[in-house]
Each structure stands twice: as structure tokens, then as C-alpha cells.
Amino acid sequence: MREDAGMALLAARIAAFSVDPLGGNPAGVVVGDELPPDDEMQRIAKDIGYSETAFLAGGGGAEWTARYWSPEAEVPFCGHATIASAVALYRQYGTTELLFETLAGPVPITVEEIGGIPWATLTSVEPHVDEIAPDALELLLALLRVPEAGLDRRLPPKVAYAGAYHPIIALASASAHAALEYDFDRLRALMEQRDWTTIQVIWQASPTQFRARNPFPVCGVVEDPATGAAAAAFGAYLRAIGAVTPPASIEIVQGEEIGRPSQIFVAIPRTGGIGVTGTAVLIPAALA
Fold this sequence. Notes:
Helix content is 23%, strand content 38%. It is of the alpha+beta class. The model is unreliable at 1-8 (pLDDT under 50).
């Protein structure tokens, strides 16, 4: 991490859910004794330019206030920026037990170093899973250019929440998943109307591995390479529809189609918040 002149903040660029700085999902992490004003956080997030930047205020201990900003707006919770932040705090302070107070609620995080690599696990706020209104689902499928016949009937469309709202659309074939494309502007309008953060488009590769693609037009991003909040929501969804028998663990592979492969591990307990685990790596200045 580095100290930015004139900001009295420690700032870093970190790739979450990867051991390779060219993989994973890049996040900004800005740490200080106090949070900057909202307009300053928005300006910094825009300057950093990643899909999200986490702003943390605390004194180096376990408890931190966390806010998350995209280049265009604030979001209530961001999983990949949380993982990146936890690893950054571990590197800076050696802290292994953390609690982030977010707009979505308290999020506990643990960090464990295995073979010299720090792995962070967040536990989401209490999740819930709901139906998608029929008219919204019809429009969503049209904008994703997915016919109803192309859906995986074992995994019906729903909207899941674990800090942010993510519709889940499961496709029946790997080829359809690989060929995903969508109407950026119209999907953004629908997502803003419905308060959806990303769309979790899934293909089940094996009983325990899922491939995900996450359109993210509400924050000006065509596709998110790793989405921790959506991973938590998906774990809650699998539990709610009875697709797993808790306690269960799954792996989500994301970002390969856009050249930033990511690996997300999800722990699904019988009740309560969903665990999301990943590592993170500092992005060198030459790659930032």
C-alpha cells in the first residue's frame, strides 16, 4: 500500500479472487482514520477507475467502517473489494479477524495464511431469495437474448440478496454461456428500475463447480470478472431451492471469457450468512 500525497490515506490497487495480478477483479482499497466526504470518495473511485473502490475507516484494529463506490455511484456492498480490503489490512496490520460495518449490515471476515498466501473469508448478511416478476423476467431474458428453451430447468430464475440484489439466470449449455451478449443500455435501465446490481448468468459445469458471467451495466462495466456479493447470493439461492444439502461447498469460476480468470469458493451453511473465500494480490504500478 502507499500513502497518497494530500489525502492522508493509504491506497492500493488489488486483484481479488486470483493469485495473478492479471487475473481476478481489480479493486481500489483506500484506508484512513476517517472516511472522506462522499463527493471526494466518488472522485477517488472515478480516478482509480475500477468497478469498485472500498473506503475503510478505522484505527488498525478489528472493526472498520466500509463504503463502496463505483466510478459512477455508491453501492451498498461489494464482495471482491471486501476480500481485497481484508488481504490489504492483513498485509498492513497482521489482522486476522475483522468486522466491516457496511451499508448492507455487519460483515465479519477472517484471514488465514496458507503456504504464504492469505485467504480471506467473508460471511454475508442474512440472505433471502425471491421470485422475479414475470414481466421483468420476460424483458430480462429478451435483453440477454436467452430463449426460455435455453434455461436450465433445474435452476429456475430467481433474484437473490446477500448484501445486494442479483437475478440468477442459469443456462442449459456451455456454448450459450460462452456466447452471452446483451443490450447494454436497455439492461442498465431495467436494472436501475429494479435495484439489481449484477446479473448472475450461470452454467453448471459439475455438481460442485459453476461458471458465472456477470453483466454490470449499472456501474458502466460490461462484465464483472469476479463478483463476491453475487457468489454469496448464489449460495443462498442454491440452499433456498434445495439444489444443495447444507453444509455444502461449491466453486465459482468467473472472468475467463474476458481474460481475467477468477476463482471463488462458497460455503453454504444450514442457516445464516453465506461464506465467500478468495485470495488477493497487489497490482504492480506498471500494470495498474
